[in-house]
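Record type: monomer structure entry
Structure origin: computed from sequence
Chain ID: A
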Amino acid sequence: ILRIPFYVFNFEKEFKKRVVDYFLKEYKAGFTPNPCVVCNKEIKFGLLLEKALGLGADYVATGHYARLRRPAYHQRLRQGEGYGGQAKGKTFHILKAKDKEKDQSYFLWQLSNKHLSRILFPVGGYTKSEVRKIAERFKLPTAKTPESMEVCFIPKTIEDFLKKYLKCKRGDIINRKGEVVGVHQGL
């Protein structure tokens, strides 16, 4: 028995307000939002990280396929040597994952040094197939879980989701010469 405490946090209201409402507002304004970027900043590495640190955790580890280059002072800190007054002006760098096909580093671009100093990306140095083999070796139920490439809060298609919350507004499709070449039902 590992005796690791297990906590459950309900961020449903915050997720709706900070991620889903943002998504709808941006689409309504004619933009193409990326809710995963906002979720990472606001929920996973905002609220969750804050709760974890409040409970005494040193780091939050996630399954993002990304890597992190830490400043030299931070490496020494992790080895128990302390900061030595070198903390100011040092930058953490988000790097692409070993598996270029599964890289998720672009979802993390809004994270600050403060966030990154408390995050671990343990699968970023592996390919997806290597991670699946490790999961199989340890008989983890996720070893054969199908991949999800969609937005987590959208049950079917983005179009169906948007129709449920936003009124479609027809518009012209215009080419670079300013000529109307068609009509859309609401993008």
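Annotation 1: The CA atoms of residues 41 and 178 lie 39 Å apart.
Annotation 2: The chain has six helices and six strands.
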